[in-house]
Amino acid sequence: MILGIIRTLILFAVVVIGLRLMGKRQIGQLQPYELVIVIMLSALAAIPMENTGVPLASGLFPIFTLIVAQVALSYIFLKSERARSVVCSTPSVLIENGRIVEKELARLRYNINDLLEQLRAKNTPNIADVEFAILETSGELSIIPKSQKRPLAPADLNLSTEYEGLPVTLIIDGYLFKKNLAKINLDENWLASELQKRGIDSYREVLFASLDSAGKLFYQVKTKAV
């Protein structure tokens, strides 16, 4: 029993490390070969977990082989566009200059209903508003609307805008991110003073707090248990 638990934890750790090495992508953003590797990793890890008669090393070897193969392929694709196009294919234009490319739909076995569904998922219910629709190699549909249908931006009105950076997270669930404070040249004394102004004695009482580029502090205190 204990041996099985140890084997399971080891295999779990190896698979998690392998997925981390594959990069930070969501399942929907994986290339087909990456999805195959993920499925094979889970299948290979299940064998030594279910059958303790299989040596752990025999189960780990093919897992390591797949991880090395994926990392090697990723490196090759960084250096060779031809290799990437052979394995991952290339993006396909489904709508070009406002017209549906029927031949490309037929080649991909991608029907009009599939296209309309993807457009609705991208908040574009009217196909007449689309200038280009490109099916990426990951299966994601990228949409470029017609110029008359694009959201109005300040640049369209020749308006100048101030810089808006990303808010800096300071506290999550009572934990203080000291490195983030240091990045914006502030310290714990400043934060404690700001919290005290708002009637908060300790940052441990705060559920979440962040500071935007304009210096505005957003916070929410924890709900006290009854």
UniProtKB/TrEMBL annotation:
Membrane topology, as annotated: Multi-pass membrane protein
Keywords: Cell membrane, Membrane, Transmembrane, Transmembrane helix
Keyword Cell membrane recorded: yes
Span of the signal peptide: none
Annotated Pfam families: DUF421
Domain YetF C-terminal: 79-211
Compartments where found: Cell membrane
TM region positions: 6-23, 30-47, 59-78
GO cellular component, one term: plasma membrane
Family: Belongs to the UPF0702 family.
Record protein name field: YetF C-terminal domain-containing protein
Protein species of origin: Pelotomaculum propionicicum
